[in-house]
Request: fold
Amino acid sequence: MTNNTRNSVDGESEAAVLYKNEGNAAFKAEKWEEAVQNYTKAIEVGGKHKDLAVFYKNRAAAYLKLDKYKAAIDDCSESLKLAPKDPKALFRRAQAYDALEKYEEAYKDATDLFKADPNNKSVQPMLQRLHQIVQERLAQNAKTSTKVNQMMSLTFDVASPVDKRRSGSNNLLVLANEEVGADMLFKAGCITKIASLTKIEKDPEIYCNLVRVVAELCNNSVERTKAVLRELGVPWFLHVLDHKHAERVTAAQYCLQTIINALSGMENKPESKPKKELCEQNQKEIDTLLTCLVYTITDRTISGEARDAIIELLTRNVHYTALAWAERLVEIRGLQRLLEVCSELEEYKYESAMEITPSSRTIASVCMARVYENMYHDELRKRYTDAIDEYIKDKLLDPDMESKVRVTVAITSLLSGPLDVGNQIVSREGILQMILAMATTDDELQQRVACECIVAAASKKDKAKALCAQGVDILKNLYKCKNDNIRVRALVGLCKLGSYGGQDAAIRPFADGSTNKLAEACRRFLVKPGKDRDIRRWAADGLAYLTLDAEVKEKLIEDKPALHALIDLARSGDQSCLYGVVTTFVNLVNAYEKQEMLPEMIELAKFAKHHIPEEHELDDVDFVNKRITILANEGITSALCALAKTESHNSQELIARVLNAVCSLQELRGKVVQDGGVKALLRMALEGTDKGKRHASQALARIGITINPEVAFAGQRSLDVIRPLLNLLHQDCAALENFEALMALTNLAAMNESVRQRIVKEQGLSKIEIYLMEEHLYLRRASAQCICNMVMSDDVVKMFEKPNDRVKFLALLCEEEDEETAKACAGALAMLTSISKICCTKILEISSWLEILHTLIANPSPEVQHRGVVVILNMINVGEDIARKLLETDIMELLSGLSQLPDETRAKAREIAQQCLTAAERYRLIEKSDDAEIPNVFEEAARIEEIEN
Reply:
C-alpha cells in the first residue's frame, strides 16, 4: 500500500469515528434524527472500518427511538453479518421485531442472545414474556388453521346451502383480516379457489366477500400481492369491477386500491404517503396496473359504474401526495380518454357508444382538475393544454354537427374542472361564436348543450361580462322554449348572471323582484311531480346562485317540499347534483367566505364615495340559526354524507362548511354524530383544501366538546381525530378554533392511555403548552386543563422530568387569579409530585417556590387549596431532605392553622394538612403538640383583616 493510499484510508477512518462520536452525542441529547444522520455518514465514509458493525447497531438504536422498526431490523441484520451473535444487535433486533408484533422472530433473537450471554438481565423478562406469547400463538394458530380449513370447505362447496356458504365467506373475511389467518388462507390455495368460484358464483354477498378476501390477502404484503397479480391477472379485477351492482363495484375498487397501496407502501387513510423505495422496487407492477386502468376508461364494453370507479381510482393516485402519476397519465393520452367520457351523450346511441352514469362527467372533470393541479411548471401545463387542443381540433376537423356538439359538452366539463384551461379554450377564436350559434338554432339538443356551456362559462364574474352582452338575450329566448330541459338550463344561466351582486343587498344587476321570480321558477322545476332528476338538479343549480339573496333564503327554508327535494337529490349520491345542492345549503347557513370589513376601511370608503357592502337584516344570527336548525332536523347530515364520497376537494370544503355550521349549535351536535357525520368529517379533516380541513376539524372539535368522546369517537376514531384537532393549534387559526381544539383534546386525554400516547406521538404536548403563555384567559385555562389530563400518562411525566421549565411554568400558573386555571395547574402538579421525586425537587429549584406554596395553602378557592396541600404532602413523603427544607420555613405553621380551620368547605384540605403534620412527626422534624397550643394563623389573619376594615 502506498503512503497516499494509507493516508487516505486513515483519513476516512478518522472521519468515520468522528461522525460516530457526534452521533453518540446527539443520541445522548435525545436528538434522534441528528444521530441517524451522523451514523449514516459514519457508515458511508467508513467503508470497511473495523467498527462498521458498531455504526450499524448504533443507528439501529436511534431508529428504535424514532419508531422506525423496519430500518432498525435491517441495520441490526447488517451488524450481525459483520459481528455474529453480538448481544446488543440481537437485543435491538428483538425489540424491533417485538414492536412489529413479529413475536416468533423476536423470540428467536432473544433466545440466541440468552445463549450467548446467560447473565444478561435485560433479556430475561423479554424472553419470558415472548415465550408465553409464542406458546399462546402456537395454540391459537392451530385453532386458526382448523377454522381456515372448515370455512374454505364450507364456502367453496357449491352444493351447501346458501346461508351456510354466506356465513362461511363472512368468516373467511374475518380470518383474512388477521395476518396469521391471511397467511394460512394464502398457503391453502384460497386464491385459486376464488378464481374458480367467481366464474360461477351467483350470490352477490358471497361474491363480494370473496373479492374482499383477496383485498385483505394483499393488504400490507408485497409478496402476497405480487403472487395474487401473477395468479389472477389484472383482467380478473377489471372483470369483477365490470358490473352495475354498487356493492360489487365498491369491493373491486377497494381491492385494486389495496393492491396499489401494498405495492407503494400507502395505507387506506387520507393522510397516508407512499414509500419511495417500495415504489421504485415495484414500479413495473404499479405502472402496468395504472396504465391498464387508463386504457380501460374508454372501454366500450364495461358498465358506467365500473368506468366511474376506475376514474375515481386514478383521481386518488395521480396527485403528488400519492403516486404522482399525473405526468404519466398525460403522456399516455389519458386526458383525451377522459374527454371522450365527458363528450358522451345519451342522444348518440350506437353500438360503439360508452355507457355512462349521471355522475360520469362530473367524476371525469374532477380527475382532469386533479391532474392539472400537478402540472407544477409551465412546460407541463403546456403539455396538458396541447393534449386538450389536440382533442378539440381533431373533433372540429369532422364537418358534421355531432362532433361540434361533443366538443361543446367536453368544454363544459373542462369549465367544471380545470377552469383556467376551459376559459383558455372558450377564448380561442371561433369557439364562443360556435357555441352562441348553436344556442340560436332550432335543434333542441344543440340548444341544450350550448346553454349548458354558456352557464359553465359564466363561472367567473369577469368572464361573465363578456357573455352578458351576447348571452343574456339568448338565455331569455331559450327560457321561452317549450322543452323543460332547455328552459331549466336557461333559467340557471339567468340566475347565475343575476346573482353577481353576491350577498351585497345593495347591488342587483337585474330589475327589483326578478331574483324572487327566478327563484320561484327554479322551485317549480324542483318540486314539479314527474320531473326527472336531471331537471331537478339544474333547478338546484339555479338556487345555488339565487340563495345569496337573503329573502330567497327565508322563502326556501319555509318551503318544506323544496327542501325535501334538495335533500333527496343529495341522498342519491349523484355527483352531478353535488355543486348545486351543497352550495344552496352553504348559502342557507351563511357558511360562505365573508369579507372582513374593518372600521377604518369603511370610513375610507365613505370618504372616497365608494360603495360599502350591506348585509341584509334577514342574515342576522337569529335567522341563520333558525335555518340551520330546520335543515338539521330535516336530515341534512345524512344527505351530505352521501355526497362526501366525492374526490373533489372544493366540494368537500363546501360540505365541511355546512357540517361545521350545524355543529356551531350545541344542541345539534348529537344529531350529526347520530347521522354518521363523524366518519365523513374525519376524512375531510385530513385531505382537501386548507379551509376545508379547518372547517371539518373545527366541527370535530365542537363534537368532542359536547359529546362523550367514547360515544362520538368510538374505537379507532378516538385516535384518528387527534391529528385534525392538533392541526387547529396553529397561529393561522382563529382563537375560537384554538380554544375548541384544546377543549376537545382535554376530553379525549381523559379517555385512556392510548389516546394520551397518540397525542404525545403527534408532538401534541408542545403544541398544547404554547397556549399556557397566551394572554387570552380562556386559551390559557383550556391549555392548563388539557395538560392536567395529559400528566396521567407515564410518558408525559418523563417529559416533565427532563431538563426543562415545564414544572416551573405550571407552578407559577398556580398563582393565577382565575380559579379554573389555578385548579388545573395545581391538579397537574399534585399528580406529577405523587409519582416523581424529580418533579418535587424541581419545585424547590424555583426561586419563588415559597411564595407559590403560600399562595396554594392560603388560596381562597377550597379546590385549589386542596390540590396545593396534596402537592406539599407529596413533597414531604418523597424524602426527609425535601421535608426538612419545607419545614425550615413557616409552611408548618400555615398547615397547623389549616388543620384546625372549622370551615367545612375546606374539609379535604384540612385532612391533607393533618397528614402533612403526621408525616413531619414521622421524620421527627416537629414534636407532637396539643392543638390548643398551636396558633390558628388563618383565624388570626381573618381577625387582623377585620380590624383593618
